Amino acid sequence: MGKFKAFLKRKDILLSxxxxxIDALGAMAQGLFCTLLVGTILNTLGQQFGISVLxxxxxxxYTVGGxxxxxxxxxxxxxxxxxxxxxxxxxxxxxPVGYATNTLGGAGGPLAxxxxxxxxxxxxxxxxxxxxxxxxxxxxxxVLVGVGAACLVAKPIGSAASAVGDAIMWATELQPFLMGVVxxxxxGIALTLPISSAAICAALSLTGLAGGxxxxxxxxxxxxxxxxxxxxxxxxxxxxxGVGTSMLQMPNIIKNPRIWIPPTVASMITGPIATCxxxxxxxxxxxxxxxxxxxxxxxxxxxxGWVNDVAAGTxxxxxxxxxxxxxxxxxxxPAILSVVSCExxxxxGWIREGDLKLDL
Length: 360
Description:
This protein is mainly alpha-helical. It has two domains: about 1-160, no CATH class; about 175-350, no CATH class. The protein has 16 helices and no strands. α7 packs across α10 (about 195-205). The termini are far apart. The mean pLDDT is about 90.
């Protein structure tokens, strides 16, 4: 047993929740961002501004953005392999594994790629540099294990993820107030935790009203922390948290969990307002549902959804009320609600001066 543990250590195979639940999931979000999300943004820019280089096919029927979106499976697989510190031959062999898994997984393909890429990566690492013909053995093992696993589990995992996402979206349509509170709060909390809310939303294909609630929750966390900590962190903190990530506050949350109350309360208020009052929907790329104001990707995703709906004839036009709703849900209300809640907690002594200070 001791020799096997030593072997795993030598191969840098660490069976831990951090490596698989944080590192790999975070990498999955990066892979999604660099393929599906970037492709969606490029297509939207091309359509809205008439940029021919972005609207004309460059390979077959694919535009530049279409090519980027089509590579979502390989993008996720390679990102995960990189996060798991795999050798180059394993990393490059994950390209066909990711493509096959995402294709077989259907709507829930990203989640299937997450699991299969981990298995293929670790199996590839086991045999890497163990033979004199490593250049053949390592890629063959990685591809065979990955594609084999994809054939066995990609479709069931994809179907299960899609079913869960459909159930959440159905429940949100049925009970927009209750689910607005729940989805907004949970996805917002996931965004601030060292896991990937974007990857979760993409894995569940979370769009529609549920996607809108997710956007609201993420914005509440990012804008909330950015504004309520302004006295400690000034403009650098405002930008770092408001356009970057509220995850920067995790060390402070561990020290004083009460600082998490204001943005979470804000998310529980803005979520149902988004679903019940403004009917804010995310009909763009599902990964955008979990991005909040990070690079304004959440807002770009909502806008992309509006454009798609208008093009499909399901929406007459983008109205002033749409823009007002987005501004209130994504920026104005999170800022006001979080600051008010924070000031109340400061007066109660639950939040003290310096509790929100970042090391920037």
